[in-house]
UniProtKB/TrEMBL annotation:
<feature type="domain" description="ParB-like N-terminal">
    <location>
        <begin position="31"/>
        <end position="115"/>
    </location>
</feature>
<dbReference type="InterPro" id="IPR036086">
    <property type="entry name" value="ParB/Sulfiredoxin_sf"/>
</dbReference>
<feature type="region of interest" description="Disordered">
    <location>
        <begin position="226"/>
        <end position="253"/>
    </location>
</feature>
<protein>
    <submittedName>
        <fullName>ParB-like chromosome segregation protein Spo0J</fullName>
    </submittedName>
</protein>
<dbReference type="InterPro" id="IPR003115">
    <property type="entry name" value="ParB_N"/>
</dbReference>
Amino acid sequence: MPKDDTGELIEVGSSVAGEAAEQNQYTKCHANVPISTLDFSGSPRLDGENPAHTRLLAEIDAALPPILVHRQTMRVIDGRHRLRAANLRGEQTIAVEYFDGDEDRAFLLSVSANLSHGLPLSLADRKAAAEQIIRQHPEWSDRAIAAAAGLSAGAVSAIRRETATGGGELTARIGRDGRVRPIDPTQGRLRASRILAERPRASLREIAKEAGIAVGTARDVRDRVRRGLDPAPVNHREEQGAPPEQGHEAPKTEFEQAQARFDTLTATLQSLKKDPSLRFTESGRRLLRWLEGHALKPEDSWVVPSSPPHCAVLIADIARHNALMLHSLADVLEQQGQQAM
């Protein structure tokens, strides 16, 4: 699972692959094509493929999954390491699945695929991908781009500020849910108040449509104007008890935080299960079983009330020892991963 600049785990929630599947842009039947006909350009990896990972895949004594190719350009979308491995093994052809969308969607799908399985993209790769997505889709919200590029919304916001073509005179952006939201909600509220002044009998739907705001926001503006209040005070959300602005989430309970961490770890484990170097080797499958068996769940909190008071200190010592051992293991693995990149 990727991390942002601060080391925070980022949830990758891009729906690019799902949308492509819904629009029948995949050709699921496998075709063997000559490797010489494939285009390697357009990779989201700034430094190209990792030689060590390529050699590892080449040594797997099993058929690897088909790679994904953009039919119109024959550019490889996902599976460059598998393609390099096939070259190392002296193979002349490789199994492919085709994607029939446009080149823009092909790039988004390439980034999404390299975030969800296989060798993850580096932070520099993900930042570069975010810059390209901002140039191609300045109307997308920070969170939508963050989900597509595997970054935090804050990191995307910083990149947008540094990117000259990051939005221009846009007044609204499209969120991950496909809904259009104003960049500055204050302006929409002010427009709504002017419409109310000119046409007091206008319906809430008419006001919302003309002002570019939600019907609920139009209702709130009307109520505030009737009470003689500012239609768009700085702290209007706190006063009205409305949901926080996009990018500012409400505080989560301790259980919700634990559940969120577990969901993130579950997603990471599912991603690892798709990695060919783990799926198709006995040592890899053993590692996956070990990881799954050592994953603590929020419901494991039953351990605390089930521990007799006179045994609590001893149980705590065992738990702390296991935690220290896992922490040391994590340090070694992290160092090994950094050396391989």
